[in-house]
Amino acid sequence: MPRLLAAFLTCVVSAVLATGAAFGIVAALDATPEQQNVPLVTFPDPPADGASSTPGPGSD
């Protein structure tokens, strides 16, 4: 009987620890600030008529 009780308590304690760790990880992830969505590279807008003022590759 004592071994059965020890095994049961071990399972209960491990389940509580796993649940606490999961909630702790979720809380830590929610506590971090969100990163700004700023692009590192920006490209100029194309001309309105769609034609390029500089010849592209293959337009010899």
UniProtKB/TrEMBL annotation:
Signal peptide: 1-18
UniProt entry keywords in alphabetical sequence: Signal
Compositionally biased tracts (Polar residues): 51-60
Region named Disordered: 41-60
Protein's recorded name: SPW_0924 family protein
